[in-house]
Write a structure and sequence with these properties.
The complex is a heterotrimer of chains A (about 300), B (about 300) and C (about 350). With about 300 residues, chain A is mainly α. Chain A has ten helices and no strands. In chain C, the strands form two sheets. Chain C has an eight-stranded mixed beta sheet with strand order 6-7-8-3-9-10-12-11, sandwiched between helices. The longest helix of chain C is centred in the middle third of the chain and has 18 residues. The chains are: A mainly alpha (about 300), B mainly alpha (about 300), C alpha/beta (about 350).
Chain lengths: ~300, ~300, ~350
């Protein structure tokens, strides 16, 4: 419906920057692409390996260490790069842990919704007919309802947990993948080599596997990056509201939630995770926009 | 056209039905007696028994669903366990506040977009264009709730310019409206910029210029018409985000609207409010989408004249 | 060349839903094939001539089992598909398509493309024999062994069609339908591929249904020819006979449109014999479908559908004036028939 146009228009680039060179696939991408990719990679590595080296104790309750500003220290607490939060926990460690939580949710959600969405889209596109109509109507209905509200409802009622967040955000995300996959399926199914496959005895499943799915991987893969950013932000928002991951898990959202009360006195608790989030999202957007040029 | 309108209307009703049914399923899937859940922890056994009968809890699931739908059609959502009043009236009382905020936000968005858009369009490729477009893209991706907190930090805490929350004087509208609308403003600004650029480059302009008309008049006359379709399209989808964003913004700024009500209902296990609120959300959302679709169809003759 | 009939279509009708206009046959439906009958014998090449859009490709799909039949029947050996059925695609009939760029899976190497038939039907060929057979296939179509490792993007149009032919041959079919298989190729490549087809046929004894709008190509390959117009066959016969003395006005116009190699040899030609545009399937002309563009058209043509007139052994034309002197006169004047004696 209107979504495609939004996606298309929202992706309209500002005037094209000068490229390094005009070339084949991996050459000639603008500088910002490489910088952004490096940043995203850094985040991922930090999320995976960071908490292994620093040990974040969520249950720490060290009030004497509480609310130390970045680069400051109190007593013999040692050097806190980013300060501490209201319970005396090192904010840097907390953010690393939060990175892990947020990215975990992001990855799980994106993979789940991509797989489910692609399967649905491929089936709808290849089969056509009533099944296609039904599935696409379902997608429309899903799309019509604002995802955050729906997620709030599901998580709020079913309970805060990583699983419920993944579930509700996956529900919100599958539609886009289904549409992409369906479009590819429809495009590919009328190509001559699919007919040739059929003549060689290939059934519908074979066609889906050998012709349609490989064609979907590209567009779906690229869109996964965009969705990842969206999911990470959504999770943060939900956690911030209290209907995301449990407050005992450190997520950027929960940290910001906690920091809200100390906005005046200890501004860093609420703002720093937000900056981290904003930077990550921006970099992912840049990478995604660049990859989308290929399709 | 009539066929299209009817189809969209039917579709809208289906969506509301599904939204409402989702609540039904969700509430029923919780452990415990649904009647008790709805009435809250302070309910008397007698009241619980009475409501249980009314809801048909002793009968089959299908019967319960029937009663449920009947209640919805009669706009009866029970009493809120938080407020002790009919849930729907509690929610409806909050609707005007949300609408006001949305309205102000939209106005701001339109102003910003239609000022920045043409401005950039007439200076395509310039350094200003690069910088502002890049900034727009960056700002668009920022998490809304965080921006809201930043605004609070600066305007309330550091500089004490604006009231900290709640709906009071005109100043209290500023921060919530900005927080609610800024992503949309960015998208729309870029959209109008691209649209204006496209028109400026097209034949219209050269002809008009040849006739001696100023660039600005050309923009006004031709662009506006062509811009309408994409704007409405984008607007339609962004509207959804507006509704979602309302929950977040209202919570941060303590705005007495339906978003905050929904969240509080969820956090306080007040399921009557949750049901009523989701219903209002669904109806409002679907109604707006429907209007947008109809408007869209009206403007785009391709849809109007025959879509098989 | 034996007379054993391998593939037969009898009075095939095919209707499609027409979304843009209302058809005359039934509301919303358009008849693409209006009673097509054809026979193909083992090892022979039947050329199917006609303009673009006359229904040749649709017919090919029906023969292969890719589209269902609305009435009539398609018979391949003992398998018959009748009304409403899609004869299950059978390995015995394979197809080479027009578009070299769409007929190969861009994400597979040539070796995987060629082995697909064996992958799907494991009993065809033991896995241990694949490698040898692949090499043989590739060299048989004039490519080199290293082509096996390439992706379609690295192949030229001619090379891709060779791969397509090899793929068709990989399952040892009895019939290969060439649907405009050379039409998208450059002239020099075209003749190479045609030669390849000839060579393959003499080696394997496979039968071809060679569909084309290019009379020169059909002339080279075909033993027999059928001419199609707007969903109907208007003439059939041995290739030599049909090309030397066509029985149907439409065939004349097709041949007249061919640039003469030695124009100084005489016979004044009037190019551009065809009047007007091809009518739409939705509302075909009454009586003879070709009458709106025919230089011989008379009143009878609008009133009655022309009967199939036998002109000589195996040569049939569906025209009221088939074999008449009037037709022959016009034909001579446009140079498509040499004046007898």
């Amino acid at each position: 419906m209107a979504t495609e146009l939004v996606l298309a228009t929202a992706q309209q680039e500002r005037p094209a920057p000068r490229r390094v060179s005009a070339g084949v696939l991996h050459e000639g991408r603008p500088m910002r692409f490489w910088v952004s990719s490096a940043v995203v990679l850094a985040y991922v590595l930090a999320a995976i390996f960071g908490p292994l080296f620093t040990h974040f104790d969520a249950s720490l309750n060290n009030v004497t260490q509480a609310l130390i500003p970045p680069f400051g220290h109190k007593g013999d607490s040692g050097f806190q790069v980013l300060g501490t939060d209201w319970l005396g926990r090192d904010l840097f460690q907390e953010m690393l842990q939060g990175a892990r939580t947020s990215m975990l949710v992001g990855a799980l959600t994106v993979v789940t919704s991509a797989v489910v969405g692609t399967v649905i889209g491929v089936v709808a596109g290849v089969r056509g007919g009533l099944l296609d109509g039904f599935l696409m109507r379902l997608a429309d209905v899903q799309l019509t309802f604002p995802s955050i509200v729906m997620a709030m409802l599901i998580v709020g009622v079913l309970g805060v947990s990583v699983l419920n967040v993944v579930l509700s955000l996956s529900l919100a995300s599958w539609v886009v993948f289904a549409r992409i996959a369906r479009a590819e399926a429809v495009r590919v199914r009328s190509l001559p080599f699919v007919d040739a496959s059929r003549l060689l005895g290939g059934g519908t499943v074979h066609v889906m596997r050998s012709a349609v799915l490989p064609a979907c991987i590209g567009p779906v893969g690229v869109y996964m990056t965009v969705q990842f950013a969206y999911v990470v932000v959504s999770e943060a928002a939900l956690s911030f509201l209290g209907v995301g991951v449990p407050l005992s898990d450190a997520s950027w959202g929960t940290t910001i939630n906690g920091g809200e009360a100390y906005l005046g006195s200890a501004w860093w608790i609420a703002t720093l995770p937000g900056i981290a989030l904003a930077v990550l999202v921006t970099c992912i957007s840049i990478v995604g926009a660049e990859l989308r040029r290929d399709i | 056209m009539i066929g299209y309108v009817l189809r969209r209307a039917f579709f809208s009703i289906v969506v509301i039905l599904i939204a409402v049914s989702t609540i039904f399923i969700v509430v029923r899937s919780l452990p415990g007696n649904p009647a008790q859940l709805l009435l809250g922890p302070d309910a008397t056994p007698a009241a619980i028994a009475k409501l249980s009968r009314q809801m048909g809890l002793d009968r089959g699931l299908l019967v319960q669903y029937g009663y449920f739908i009947e209640d919805v059609l009669r706009l009866n959502f029970g009493n809120s366990s938080q407020f002790g009043e009919p849930a729907l009236s509690v929610v409806m009382a909050r609707v005007p506040a949300s609408l006001e905020l949305a309205g102000v936000a939209m106005a701001m968005v339109l102003v910003v977009a239609f000022v920045i858009g043409p401005l950039l369009a007439t200076r395509t490729g310039s350094k200003l264009d690069h910088i502002v477009s890049g900034a727009l893209m960056f700002v668009q991706g920022l998490p809304g709730f965080w921006v809201g907190l930043l605004l609070l930090l600066f305007f309330v805490d550091r500089f004490g310019l604006l009231p900290p929350g709640g709906r009071s004087n005109w100043q209290s509208f500023v921060m919530p409206a900005i927080t609610l609308g800024f992503p949309f403003a960015c998208v729309l600004a870029r959209l109008t910029r691209d649209g204006f650029v496209a028109v400026l480059r097209s034949g219209y302009v050269r002809t008009a210029q040849a006739k001696g008309i100023s660039e600005w008049r050309v923009l006004r006359k031709h662009c506006l018409r062509n811009m309408l379709i994409p704007v409405i399209t984008v607007g339609g989808v962004q509207l959804g985000m507006l509704f979602s964003g309302a929950a977040i913004v209202e919570t941060i700024f303590n705005w007495p609207g339906i978003g905050q009500t929904l969240l509080n209902g969820i956090l306080n296990d007040d399921y009557s409010i949750v049901e009523a609120d989701i219903f209002v959300f669904a109806v409002g959302f679907v109604a707006v989408n429907f209007l947008v679709d109809v408007l869209y169809a009206y403007i785009d003759p391709r849809i109007r004249l025959g879509r098989s | 060349m034996t007379d054993e009939m391998v593939l037969e279509a009898r009075d095939v009708h095919l209707r499609l839903r027409d979304r843009t206009k209302k058809g005359r046959v039934r509301r919303g439906e358009v008849e693409i094939l209006a009673g097509v009958s054809l026979e193909l014998s083992r090892g022979e090449t039947l050329g199917l001539l006609g303009e673009s859009g006359c229904g040749k490709s649709t017919f090919a799909r029906v023969l292969c089992g890719l589209s269902p039949v609305h009435s009539g029947a398609v018979r391949f050996h003992s398998r018959v598909a009748g009304k409403g059925e899609v004869s299950p695609p059978t390995l015995g009939i394979q197809m080479v398509f027009q578009d070299p760029y769409g007929s190969l899976n861009p994400r597979r190497r040539v070796r995987d493309i060629l082995a697909e038939g064996w992958q799907i039907n494991r009993s065809l060929l033991a896995k241990s024999d694949w490698e040898a057979r692949l090499r043989q296939l590739v060299t048989d179509v004039g490519l080199r062994i290293e082509h096996l490792e390439r992706f379609p993007a690295a192949l030229s149009g001619g090379e891709r069609q060779r791969v397509a032919i090899a793929r068709a041959l990989s399952v040892n079919p009895e019939v290969v339908v060439c649907d405009e298989a050379v039409s998208a190729l450059d002239a020099s490549v075209k003749s190479q591929v045609i030669s390849l087809l000839e060579e393959v046929q003499s080696r394997t004894g496979v039968a071809y249904l060679f569909i084309s709008h290019d009379t020169t190509a059909v002339r080279q390959l075909a033993d027999r020819v059928a001419v199609m117009y707007l969903g109907k066959i208007v003439e059939t016969g041995p290739a030599e006979t049909v090309f030397a003395s066509p029985g149907h006005p439409y065939t004349h116009t097709l041949l007249a449109a061919v640039p003469k190699l030695r124009p100084w040899r005489g016979g004044s030609r009037r190019p551009g014999m065809v009047k007007g545009e091809i009518p739409s399937f939705a509302s075909p002309p009454s009586g003879c479908r070709f009458r709106t563009r025919c230089f011989m058209a008379q009143d009878v043509c609008a009133a009655l559908e022309p009967p199939e007139t036998a002109l000589s052994d195996g040569h049939i034309a569906a025209c009221h004036f088939a074999g008449s002197a009037g037709l022959e006169q016009v034909a001579v004047s446009i140079g498509t028939t040499r004046r007898a004696r």
